[in-house]
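Severity: low
Component: inverse-folding endpoint
Summary: output formatting inconsistent between runs
Steps to reproduce: submit the following structure tokens with default settings.
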């Protein structure tokens, strides 16, 4: 069974290896989805959404929200933000498995990461 929690955060970035508008500092309201995989337990849940929210906020969102992403992630493309978030969350979700991280840079453009 897969369950997903969605988050938003505002941040600025510039792409260091890109030629075009995005090489200059600019901002986005990002959307992130974190999906975990596990068995449905006796309580009827794979994982408590409240606990998942706390984990993702503590390990990912609090660091990225209203930040200059380049100060945290080298070349913070949507792809690299996914990888960074995955690395922050790996091993923190007890009783379930991190399955997927999605990051939307705009309403129509996103990256998906499922680990290595």
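Observed output (run 2 of 3):
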């Amino acid at each position: 069974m897969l369950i997903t929690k969605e988050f938003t955060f505002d941040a600025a970035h510039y792409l260091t290896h890109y030629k075009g508008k995005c090489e200059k500092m600019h901002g986005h309201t990002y959307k992130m989805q974190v999906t975990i995989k596990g068995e449905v337990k006796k309580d009827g849940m794979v994982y408590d959404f409240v606990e998942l929210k706390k984990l993702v906020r503590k390990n990912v969102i609090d660091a990225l929200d209203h930040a200059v992403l380049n100060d945290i992630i080298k070349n913070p493309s949507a792809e690299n933000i996914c990888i960074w978030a995955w690395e922050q969350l790996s091993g923190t979700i007890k009783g379930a498995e991190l399955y997927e991280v999605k990051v939307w840079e705009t309403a129509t453009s996103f990256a998906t990461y499922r680990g290595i």
